[in-house]
């Protein structure tokens, strides 16, 4: 997909006044249950790819999708443009791997779920969530009525919760059991462990290395090449 067309789709998405999603890869229609990983992908990392691979091994999952979030509840846009992030995802997601590339204009997972259900009726979606995302999902600050919103969300979706960074799988399990809102829906939360090495590889490490003109093992080779070719994250 050409960059002008990527920009066109992203502009359409940004102008849509309700939660919406766009698809950028040329894959087949979704065959069944899809595991979606929402992230800023600034840039896509080996950890992101490993999370998609981990989700694919969950019983009932037919395919996986990287979901670029064009808006963020806590952060502004910095680093790579949204179009560059889509291009890096398309470079990282090889054809024939059952991995799709999507973008959503909703900052919250609940809104992303609504957008996916509207765009792909009849398809079931699960959400992959690292520890930080899991904590935000059950943070009342992001809701007008958290109970009603989460009840509707979990009626349609499961969450695949996993460790990231310093948050071990034990920390993830403890959070679910000690947080009343999460405990209420624990039967819809599947906990899966990501190996320690990829779990420690972050986009921040990749950006810091790129700023020094170096390649970091946190990013797949195709993404590293895109960063080098376009001079992304370089110190001015």
Describe it.
The protein is globular. The model has no long low-confidence stretch (mean pLDDT 90). With 236 residues, the protein is an alpha/beta fold. Strands 1-4-3-2-5-6-7 form a 7-stranded mixed beta sheet. It contains 11 helices and 7 strands. Helix 3 (82-92) links the parallel strand 3 (63-69) and strand 4 (99-104). Helix 3 packs antiparallel against helix 11 (221-230). It has a single domain (3-230), classed as HUPs (Rossmann fold, 3-Layer(aba) Sandwich), CATH 3.40.50.620. It has helices at 3-15, 46-56, 82-92, 109-119, 131-137, 146-156, 169-178, 180-184, 196-199, 203-211, 221-230, and strands at 21-23, 34-39, 63-69, 99-104, 125-129, 159-162, 189-192.
Keywords:
236 residues, alpha/beta, Rossmann fold, 7 strands
CATH top level? Alpha Beta
**Count of discrete structural domains:** 1
- Helical content stands at 40-55%
Low-confidence stretches: none
The number of distinct helices, counting runs of at least 4 residues, comes to 11
Question: Mind describing the biggest β-sheet?
Answer: 7 strands, mixed
- State the order of secondary-structure elements, H for helix, E for strand: HEEHEHEHEHHEHHEHHH
CATH fold-type name: Rossmann fold
CATH superfamily descriptor? HUPs
**What is the architecture at the second tier of CATH?**
3-Layer(aba) Sandwich
End-to-end gap: 30 Å
What would a concise description of this structure say?
This protein has 236 residues and is an alpha/beta fold.
Show the helix and strand layout.
Elements: H1 3-15, E1 21-23, E2 34-39, H2 46-56, E3 63-69, H3 82-92, E4 99-104, H4 109-119, E5 125-129, H5 131-137, H6 146-156, E6 159-162, H7 169-178, H8 180-184, E7 189-192, H9 196-199, H10 203-211, H11 221-230
Parallel strand pairs: 2-3, 2-5, 3-4, 5-6, 6-7
Antiparallel strand pairs: 1-4
């Amino acid at each position: 997909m050409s960059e002008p067309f990527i920009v066109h789709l992203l502009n359409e998405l940004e102008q849509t006044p309700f939660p919406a999603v766009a698809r950028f890869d040329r894959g087949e229609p979704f065959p069944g249950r899809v595991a979606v990983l929402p992230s800023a992908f600034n840039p896509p990392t080996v950890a992101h790819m490993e999370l998609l691979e981990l989700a694919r091994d969950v019983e009932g999952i037919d395919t996986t999708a990287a979901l670029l979030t064009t808006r963020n509840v806590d952060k502004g846009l910095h680093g790579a443009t949204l179009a560059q992030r889509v291009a890096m995802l398309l470079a990282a997601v090889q054809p024939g791997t059952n991995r799709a590339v999507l973008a959503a204009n909703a900052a919250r997972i609940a809104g992303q779920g609504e957008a996916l259900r509207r765009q792909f009726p009849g398809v079931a979606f699960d959400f992959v969530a690292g520890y930080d995302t899991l904590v935000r999902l059950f943070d009342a600050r992001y809701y007008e009525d958290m109970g009603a919103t989460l009840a509707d969300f979990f009626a349609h979706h499961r969450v695949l919760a996993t460790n990231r960074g310093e948050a071990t799988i034990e920390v993830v399990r403890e959070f679910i059991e000690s947080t009343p809102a999460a405990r209420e829906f624990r039967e819809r939360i599947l906990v899966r462990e990501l190996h320690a090495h990829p779990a420690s590889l972050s986009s921040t490490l990749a950006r810091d290395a790129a700023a020094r003109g170096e390649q970091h093992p946190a990013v797949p080779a195709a993404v590293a090449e895109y960063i080098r070719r376009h001079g992304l994250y370089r110190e001015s």
